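User: Fold this; tokens only.

Assistant: Input:
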Amino acid sequence: MNKLYINTPQNVKFEYKLASLGARVLAFAVDYGIIMAYFIFTFLLLTFSGLRDSKDNWLIMGIVSLSSLPAIFYTLILETAMEGQTVGKRLMKVKVVKIDGTRATFYQYFIRWISNTVDIFFSMGGLGILSIILTKNSQRLGDLAADTTVISVKEDLNLQVTLFEELTAEHRVTYPEVVRLTDQDVNQIKDIFETAKSRKNYSIVLALATRVEILLGIKSQLAPEDFIPLVIQDHYYIYRDK
């Protein structure tokens, strides 16, 4: 799977797994299915309510146009409200982000939504798929225009299993503040820490430790190379039976 690499001003390197083409296609299929189901439901509702038998064509057109708005703006509304996800994207565990890995803005979601017309609907998805395959960061035309991409947010369970094997039954939690971190946060911290160790890059370990202290709201007295593993172990120890 391709990855998106981000280098922060503190020289801490983050790695995001780019969403696979299959996951994106399935997410679109789910969302398109929801939209089609909505249109069918609306059509049946108008039929059984008798409105379609009305002789006032303007009234019918107005009602149909108004009832179509939720389907038309479905992607834009949900990606804005759900921080880059729709129902399909959430089920497939992918989300839209800026190319630097941070949360996209409404303007960027809007650009992607407008671009659906070209790289999905007018081309039957052909341009979008071709662009995802050929671009470095798996970006369709809408992503290129909005400076976004789609990443995978699946948790790496293998990392958790590895950490559990390292814990002892007598382990005592040193930093209860780790409850502020999500599983994804901790897995990412572990990835960066292990990469820095393998490259013998102490500056990254130091920058990472500083960032973790800020996230937890604490000041550790331990050396960074001891502090980070303890934070990871504390988190997994607290949540290992949940």
